[in-house]
Amino acid sequence: MDQNVINMVQYLLVADQKKMPIKRTDITRYVIPDNTREFGDIFDACKKALFNVFGLKVLETPEKNSYIIVTVIRDSSLWRPEITSQIDNTHGILIPILSVIFMNGGETREENLWKFMNKINLTPETKLTYNHASIVLKDLLHSVWIRQMYLKREDIGRNEKKEFMFSWGFRAEYEINKLELLKWVCEVYGDGYEPHMFKLQYKRALSHDKMLSELDQEVEDTEPETE
């Protein structure tokens, strides 16, 4: 394997640990500063190596020229496994937040999120451990999770009043299995609840599960044949 490809694979794996989108400009600056014209070929080879060796897929974000890395391993996990070791104790809060958004039709006002979190004794100033440091919950909600693309935030306030609507971010769409999330919600609600009882959410969850399956199949179809 070309050394440039090896270096790029190593860089992407390390950069992905922070779960922030990886910019093309940073890749070229730190990996191939003298071979920028060859970026396309090297990057394509890097993506193939990431899949063949690690079972990972590189996705370009809606912002263009920036990328995230997701697993293509299919199982019954609620959270696709590559990230659970990287976010300390915050994923246990992010999952319920995403479930509130999902169960409210895909978006919800910030006040609804805090009403929910208050019920489980969480406030904006609740301190958590993230990246081996202390952080308050409101900073995760309004900064970290947005930059990581787990959440999207839209300002819907009028005049000088700030009011925000939250929805799932690009990364969450590929790392969280909505069908498994709906099953988890039913478990939380208790006996007697089944995913199909939530017609809108169930329909969207099935569609999302199909999308994830097609993404994984797309990668499998590109895997080189072995003799």
UniProtKB/TrEMBL annotation:
GO terms for cellular component: nucleus. InterPro entries: MAGE (IPR037445), MAGE_WH1 (IPR041898), MAGE_WH2 (IPR041899), MHD_dom (IPR002190). Gene3D superfamilies: MAGE homology domain, winged helix WH1 motif, MAGE homology domain, winged helix WH2 motif. Residues 1-205 form the MAGE domain. Coiled coil: none annotated. PROSITE patterns: MAGE. This is MAGE domain-containing protein. It comes from Tetranychus urticae (Two-spotted spider mite). The gene is 107367168.
